[in-house]
Amino acid sequence: MKKKNTISLLSTIMAAFIFFGRVNAQRDMTGDVVTIAGSSASISNLMIVDSINMGGVRGRDRFPTREIIHLASFEIELGSADAVSVFKTLYSGTQGQQLPDVTINRSNMQTRSGEERIFNAVTVKEISFLELNTESREAPKAKVIIQAQNVSHQESSAGGATTDPTRLSKGVRGNKFKLTIGNLPAQSVSRISKLKITPSTSSEYTYFNLDISSAEERFWSDWLNAGAGGDDKANEATISLQDERNQDILSIQLSAVEISSISPSNSPNLTSGTTRSTGAKTRIGLRTKNMPTVQ
Fold first, then answer.
1. Which ranges of the chain does DSSP label H, i.e. alpha helix?
2. Is-contact 264 282, C-beta < 8 A?
3. Radius of gyration of the CA atoms of the chain, in A
4. What is the mean pLDDT of residues 212-225?
């Protein structure tokens, strides 16, 4: 019962992250920074929730236990070496590794004041890659949700090397990536969406989407019409985030990838989600039962 109640509470809180995310993004925060294992990176859309879980019982009297849950959600740009280092360390938390302390500094550079929170015994609940889009001028981002057993916090002065976001490496601008998936043509892939990493051991599929040029649709249709499912039809895939010199800065690898759907460009679920698209597009739905790995 305790486990069920905890999962229910976590689901409610994570839903709150989604609901309040847009409001949180409008706050006049001059700089939030996450530091882990000696590397720091600017973050945005930070939300912190401390709550009490009343699930479970204690002893023969069956009094409800009071478990404190500490959660934080933030977005990190994957455009600099420091940010990629931070991200890789956070990713290791989805692999069952014990994470070092995660420190989040919330600074106001105008008043030279800030707050430092140190999260201990951290587990990563979810990582989701926000839309990878070659037509965007923003660096690619990932949303991270962490949970900690303990949190300490104190006031701090803003402006230090690890708390002043203006002193951190800005990295690349633009949204560049390269996809390879078996022998399929993927040069025209302009958008990747809904790709997530969770520490779950569930056998459920993880679904994500690609937008490709409609001129290449027939190759993907052949894959779908051939049956697509099963180990003999699965493909290996690699998504490489790149800098301005087309050098890889982060690699996401997926195994046993299967095609699940094809939506032509006149489909509402494609046209409504595509911005500044040029040329006819086709949305490809893919799925995998294996957790993506990051290098």
1. 2-25, 81-92, 217-225, 268-271
2. yes
3. 21
4. 90
